[in-house]
Amino acid sequence: MTPTGSTYDPQAGTAVPPRVGTGPSVARDRRAAPPRNVRVALVTGASSGIGAATAQRFAEGGWKVLLNGRDVPGLEKTAAGTSGIVLPGDLATPDGPRQLAESALGAAGRIDLLVAGAGIGWAGPFVTMPHTALHRVLTVDLNATLHLVREVLPAMVAAGRGRVVLVGSVAGIVGVRNEAVYSAAKAGVAAFAEALRQELRGTGVGVTHVVPGPVDTAFFERRGTPYQRTRPRPTSAGRVAGAVWEAVRRGRDDVYVPSWLCLPGRVRGVAPAVYRRLLDRFG
C-alpha cells in the first residue's frame, strides 16, 4: 500500500502507525489502550441525538467509546456513567478530520468501528439559501464525513477488520422539497457507501448505511425550522441507535428506520412516474 499522508496510513511492517495526537483533548483523556477483546467505537455527533444515543448503546454493550462533537458539556453528558473518552472538535474545519483521527489513535490506539453521525440541516427554498449555509451543510454532512473515513479506513484494512457506519437520511433517497442541499449531501453519503462497500469487498471491513426518517431530536430546532409533516412521524434516537447496534452485530449493509422507508426507493426504481406523482403529493 502506498502511503498518501493520512494519519491512519500504515507504515511498512506495522498495522497501526506510531503517530500519537498531541492536542489538549488527547493530553487530558489519554489512557491505556483497551484489551483486544474490548472493541473501540468512534462516534461523531455524539453530544446529542442519534450520535449520543448510539454511543450510549455501544457503551452499554461493552465497547470503548470515543465521543466527538463541538458541544463539550453535551459530550460529557453522553459520557457520564461510561468509560467513554471525550474528544471535542469541529469536523468542518480543514484539519478537523485529521485532528480527530490523531486524537482517537492517541486515546485508544485503534478504531474498530466508526459511526459518522455528525450532521446539520437547513430548510427553505433553494433560491433563498445563503451561500454560507449551502457550504456549511455540504461540508459537515458530506465532505467532513468522507475525509474522516479516509483518515480512519487504512488501518482497518491493514488489520483486516472493522466497520464504517454512515448515517444517511430518507431525504437522500427520495429528495425532499425545501431541503435540496441536505438531500444532495445525504444522497452523496448513500452513493459513497455503495461505492466504498464494493471497493472493500474481501478486506474484512464492512460498510453500513443507516437511513432514518425524521427523528425526534434537536436537529429541527437547530436548523431553525420545525418538522411540520404529518407523515412519516418522527421516531426516537434510541430506536435508531438500536438499529445501528443490530446492523453492526449482524454485519448488515443497509438499514432503514422504520423499515418501511425502503419502499419509496423501490417504487422509484420500478415505477418512476408513480413515484413522482406520490412525491408531488406527499414529498
Automatic annotation (TrEMBL):
Residues 1-33 are annotated as: Disordered. PROSITE patterns: ADH_SHORT. Coiled coil: none annotated. GO terms for molecular function: oxidoreductase activity. Residues 39-218 form the Ketoreductase domain. Pfam families: adh_short (PF00106). Belongs to the short-chain dehydrogenases/reductases (SDR) family. This is SDR family NAD(P)-dependent oxidoreductase. It comes from Streptomyces spongiae.
